[in-house]
Here is the input.
Amino acid sequence: MAKTVRLMDIAKKLNVSAVTVSKALSGQKGVSEELRQKIVSLANEMGYKRSEIQSIDVKAESFTIGVIVADSLISYHKARQDRRRSYRALL
Here is the structure.
């Protein structure tokens, strides 16, 4: 079975960061055209294949809102119910 080529493998050969390789291969700004061509060429030579996860468009909007609720609210209500036991809630 052939070894999977990683961004880091390409980066080490060209003495650049994996972030630079990623930017070059995905067409992002911040990489000169000369370096981009070197990276793409070496990636092809080494047999680099982008994984399906990496090919997902990270700029896509999901319109999802995440909410994290700590249990302090639950503790507060429990403390109110158990005042006779001298519990106190600190928020």
